[in-house]
Amino acid sequence: MKNQKTSAYIKVLSISSSIIALYIVAQLFTYSVEPNLPIKKDRAFKDSYAIFSLKIPEGINFAGEKTPYEKHWVKESLDRELLINTYWQSQTVLFIKRANRYFPIIEPILKEQGIPDDFKYLAVIESGLMPRAVSPAGAAGLWQFMSSTAGEYGLEVNSEVDERYHVQKSTVAACKYLKKSYDSYQNWSLVAASYNAGKAGINRQLDLQQANDYYDLLLGEETGRYVYRIIALKEILSNPKNYGFYVDEEDMYPKLKTETMTMNGSISNIADFAKSKNISYKELKDLNPWLRDNELTNSRKKTYEIDLPLKIARAGKTESISIPTETVVPNKISGSEVFIQTPGLQLK
């Protein structure tokens, strides 16, 4: 009888152990399979996220000159720049915002000087539309003039005044260069390329390669991409929604409302001058980045126009400003500079 009870106990224990073992195996199998949630997330990601190749728009041109995109190297070069500038979204959004501020200043000057409107996009790739931009080589301002070239085209450059940072005056100087270059080439694409490589550099390649067209030249990386970059940004900034860019009007950088104070005197302390106008030193320098020091000696009695906020300018217009020389002058405060690394910053 005792043996029968023991045998029954062993059977029950064996069955229980088998059931527990089966349960453990089932649980191991269950957790070895990927959960459903990540699979659903993966499918949702694939359904909602997409990157598209881009079509080259028909009739694309630069300054009215047809771009021969039927040539495979031209099409592929345009494709590269359209893709880079479309999918480098943060940079291109900033270009769109800044263009709202600076294009209304640049456009009438280009028109007055007889330069095609498309050249405003050259300023975009030169400086990113940052008036304080400085290249590693020392080219400065919206149009990236070297100091030696700036003087040749009528810009004043010294420790106190550097008109390479003056948006209007540097735009006029750039127009002078472009017109002179067009007299040589009678071709706007070559004019744009010469802004990057210099006329001597372009002439050397035209002679060496026995060519007369930018699109048939084999050039270095910077100049070889230069005109294509201009065309790509022209296309994107002209039709931003076609490339997925939606920037509300309220998010654009507005054109600053200013009036000018004409002066032919000196300012011994620009910080004090700003304070006397109830604005900060920073705001004054932001409106006038061409003022490079904390004083304006103006020993030659030249006439300058200083931009001030509209309400300030109306309250205090004057012909000659001179802060008393006994004012204590603090340590020199130079203008802020933005160093950029972009192709084509040296204008030769």
Question: Can you give a write-up of this model?
Answer:
The longest helix has 31 residues, at 2-32. A hairpin with a 2-residue loop joins strand 1 and strand 2. The protein has three domains: 2-48; 61-251, Orthogonal Bundle (Lysozyme); 258-337, no CATH class. The protein is built from 13 helices and six strands. The protein is mostly helical and 348 residues long. The strands form three sheets. It has a two-stranded antiparallel ribbon. A two-stranded parallel ribbon has the order 3-6. It has a two-stranded antiparallel ribbon with strand order 4-5.
Secondary structure topology:
Elements (H helix, E strand, L loop, with lengths): L1 H31 L3 H13 L12 E2 L2 E2 L5 H16 L1 H25 L6 H8 L5 E2 L12 H6 L14 H19 L2 H10 L1 H11 L11 H18 L19 E6 L6 H7 L4 H7 L16 E6 H6 L22 E2 L9
Helix pairs in contact: 3-10, 4-7, 5-10, 7-8, 8-9, 8-10
Question: Concise description?
Answer:
The protein has 348 residues and is mainly α. The protein has helices at residues 2-32, 36-48, 72-87, 89-113, 120-127, 147-152, 167-185, 188-197, 199-209, 221-238, 270-276, 281-287, 310-315, and strands at residues 61-62, 65-66, 133-134, 258-263, 304-309, 338-339.
Helicity level = 40-55%
Count of domain modules: 3
What is the CATH third-level topology name of the largest domain? Lysozyme
**Biggest sheet, open or closed, and with what strands and sense?**
2 strands, antiparallel
User: Order of SSEs, N→C?
Assistant: HHEEHHHEHHHHHEHHEHE
Structural class by secondary-structure content: mainly alpha
CATH class of the largest domain: Mainly Alpha
Radius of gyration: 32 Å
Q: What is the tally of helical segments?
A: 13
Between the first and last Cα atoms, what is the distance in angstroms?
Answer: 113 Å
Molecular shape:
extended
Strand arrangement, major sheet? 1-2
Mean pLDDT: 85
What is the CATH architecture term of the largest domain? Orthogonal Bundle
| Unreliable parts | 316-348
- The total beta strand count reads 6
Residues in β-strands, percent: 5-15%
